[in-house]
């Protein structure tokens, strides 16, 4: 065991301190990995754990896209801070089960303490509200829809959707996360019940369109029950007009959910938290710690202002579980899961090490780098397509054909150089753009300078080879 742990400790230190020296983009085929596993792991005979550990480390280093790398500017998968790595190891070792408080008192109270700290940041009262860690944003968003349904249709838990006289519908922006489409299916509401509200020229939910759709649905016999405002859309990092959405929901007795899976971390910054104005009025909030809080996956969070509605949605007795302890909460009665991993330790330990000011500076640095990237791109004849205070930049080139083929070709040429990884997306489902997101605390201004220089070279090389860039 000592030899194994010494090796693991060395691997963590070496990877954490020198990840920028590891190739960012792997050179491997599907067949190569499958053949390697077939040859080396038949599972017919036992193998020494030491050798297996070394081999797995080697596979993970060679055959992964390394989102811990400072040149990874792709999706919301940040470089993980060291406390979260240590926390995950401790959780695996002790393996507490947080479904019932009596089974894991220390773990349950650590999560409760951490979540209450953030509830106050979001403008919620921990005494009258409820919060829990989730596997990710999809589970948190699903929780919101289920609670909003139960609040609006109290009999749905017993009698199901088919007992309702009207079809429930809810509203998201056309730039909202795809999880809501899945949620439509999971809840039995169906895809059609998820109304996509068109966005304005800045890719924000169009309030006039929202009002029109709700009015039309009521007239057509549907039952609107919820509106989702996104604080940091997946493609463009745009923040919907949360305050206006909250006012509309209040006037129309609709549940207001804020999906702040990415942008919610801005609440930690005195300089940035104003961009979330209106979120303090939300009935429920999604925020992922494994995004801008930079802890390891998965670590979502769900916050709700109404403890009563949470209990009404998830209450389910079980004779084989111990009785509740006074003044505590059994998560199996307030969440989707029963068997619950100790997800919150990684955020607790990171908050403890960094403190509020440390986290604030960490988030503000990345926000500054996003602004710096916009300036550098514009100075190099790239066009910025989105406008957001969050460090997500969607762009094209002044001479670039806006068709999907050209965007794909630019990325292929960039990936072939194996130095940077950014992504592509479509805004309003039809506008193809390149997308760079500052996700790593390791990324610096020098890295941004290098990225813009490399993008400029790629576009120039394509032009020189006669690739259509007009």
Notes on the structure:
By secondary structure, the chain is α/β, with parallel strands linked by helices. The protein has a domain at 89-349: Type I PLP-dependent aspartate aminotransferase-like (Major domain) (Aspartate Aminotransferase, domain 2, 3-Layer(aba) Sandwich), CATH 3.40.640.10. It has 14 helices and 11 strands. The protein has helices spanning 2-18, 30-40, 49-62, 82-94, 105-121, 137-152, 156-159, 179-186, 207-219, 242-252, 307-314, 345-379, 404-416, 445-464; strands spanning 130-134, 168-173, 194-197, 223-230, 255-259, 284-288, 300-304, 382-384, 392-397, 423-427, 431-437. It has a 7-stranded mixed sheet with strand order 1-7-6-5-4-2-3, sandwiched between helices. Strands 8-9-11-10 form a 4-stranded antiparallel sheet, covered by helices on one side. A hairpin with a 3-residue loop joins strand 10 (423-427) and strand 11 (431-437).
